[in-house]
Predict the 3D structure of the following.
Amino acid sequence: METGASPAQTQAVIAEVERCGFTPHPIIGAHLSVVAVVGKHPGQLKEHFESFDGVAKVQLIDQPYKLVAKAQREPSSFDCGGALVGGPTITVAAGPCAVENEEQILACAEVVKRSGATMLRGGAFKPRSSPYSFQGMGVEGLQLLAEARRRTGLAIVSEVMDPRNVEVCAEYCDMLQIGARNMQNFALLFEVGKCDRPVFLKRGLAATIDEFLNAAEYIASQGNDKIVLCERGIRTFETATRNTLDINAVPVLKRLTHLPVAIDPSHAVGDRDLVPPITWAAVAAGADMLMLEIHPNPSKAVSDGAQSLDFPAFEKLMAGLDQVPRYAY
Ligand code: PEP
Ligand code: MN
């Protein structure tokens, strides 16, 4: 729509989209409103809609992912349990790999809050490489996260692994994480797409950017376009680090999508000493959000201890972050 198009003009376009048999996805921005439409284009529709009052232009999107494509849209930002994602400042989610007990998660929440970060992470359902490893505390873990939110006001993000658990995770969490191993679990993507919680989608271990964006489109196609795309390192020939951070993903995604982009330095490097410089690189590249693993006693952590920062290292990292210039898109 043109800047300054009236709500009635936008409404008329929405009504006509419906009359033509399509489902409209209106995106009402502060400066720019877009009526996105997905479906087979029978021709002539472009000219038809261009003749409507208030329509600036009708743009056909060639990419297979339509709703998450940048097209002419402003970058997305949204509230997530009081934490702003995609805003002018970087959003930080930090916490343990797994919720282990009340004392551990409350101690993490306290230091996360004190550091100025706005979100607490913690896995309650854990995707472990071995079926014999600790699988997470489940709903009890979610309840501990909710208690941490009650005490600190931090927003909660936690992973959901099974479509049957989306409802209970949405009940306790402000944001639902889809782990790297589930990036193409299409049944799960559809299910989180139907709920109203923002989704933190992690890039698959061997997924291309194109596959990553199509996975996000699965979620958006169900009506939920509050999605953060998280680069967390991919598998390459390199074995010196757990994964290889594809820092290119930040500017590439910024070019292709309006969705906020996150970096998870912890899983990318797998080694706590390497986390601070890679965190700085993520900020400099213009990431919208960071996800960091911390633990009160990393050597005793049940999972991912080697990459978890202890509290002093985390507080030092957070205190230094505003020294890093952030690339603006
Ligand atoms: C996690 O965040 O703890 C996790 C399992 O991440 P990923 O899915 O990126 O491996
Ligand atoms: Mn982890």
